UniProtKB/TrEMBL annotation:
InterPro entries associated with the record: CC-FHA_domain
Organism this protein belongs to: Tichodroma muraria
UniProt feature coiled coil, ranges: 4-38, 66-131
Keywords noted in UniProt: Coiled coil
Protein name according to UniProt: CCD27 protein
């Protein structure tokens, strides 16, 4: 049933198309007959003209044809000018796009170079940071040993007491300054007595 319905629809479409073609054929035949009648009228008129009239008619027809051709030429020139203008605009756009592409590539190249430089600087800074940390640890270790020696020397003086708690740097300096002041006073006394 589906196949039959499909075939019927196709047949109806074909019949509709056939009717349309026949209608167009009738119309074309009618136009052809009218054209033949017009040509026959022109031909009869042309045959009835004198030679001079024929020449004049031919001249008029040629002038009309020339005017038509001139109009066609003018239209073609106008279209050509528009096309040339469009081509010029497109070429300008293409040139602009090409320049933008070149500029973009240069920016990308500069960006890549800048990235490489930044990466190189970052690696150099990391290396320097590592060296600084190593140096800092070394200096801290030396400072701690020096501090311990100072504390040991400061509190190994006769009459001094060992610290009960961990000393701050200010307390160590204060103890050292006290010892230095005492020794300076002692030296001054010795000088006053004339002793070397």
């Amino acid at each position: 049933t589906g196949a039959i319905s499909s075939l019927q629809r196709q047949m109806e479409i074909q019949e509709s198309e056939l009717r349309r073609i026949r209608s167009e054929k009738d119309l074309l035949q009618k136009q052809l007959r009218e054209r033949e009648a017009q040509l026959q009228t022109v031909f009869d008129k042309f045959c009835s003209l004198t030679e001079e009239q024929r020449q004049e008619e031919i001249t008029v027809m040629m002038e009309e044809e020339n005017r038509n051709l001139q109009q066609v030429v003018t239209e073609q020139e106008s279209q050509l000018a528009e096309q040339n203008k469009l081509i010029s605009e497109l070429q300008g756009t293409i040139s602009q796009l090409q320049a933008e592409v070149v500029t973009t590539r240069l920016h990308l190249l500069k960006h890549k170079q800048a990235q490489k430089e930044i990466q190189s600087q970052a690696e150099a800074l990391q290396h320097k940071e590592l060296q600084t940390r190593v140096a800092l640890e070394h200096i801290s270790s030396k400072f701690e040993r020096y501090r311990n020696k100072i504390i040991q020397a400061t509190f190994s003086v006769e009459g001094s007491q060992d610290p009960q708690t961990e000393l701050t740097d200010d307390e160590v300096l204060e103890a050292m300054q006290k010892i230095i002041n005492e020794r300076m006073e002692f030296l001054q006394k010795l000088k006053n007595k004339g002793s070397k």
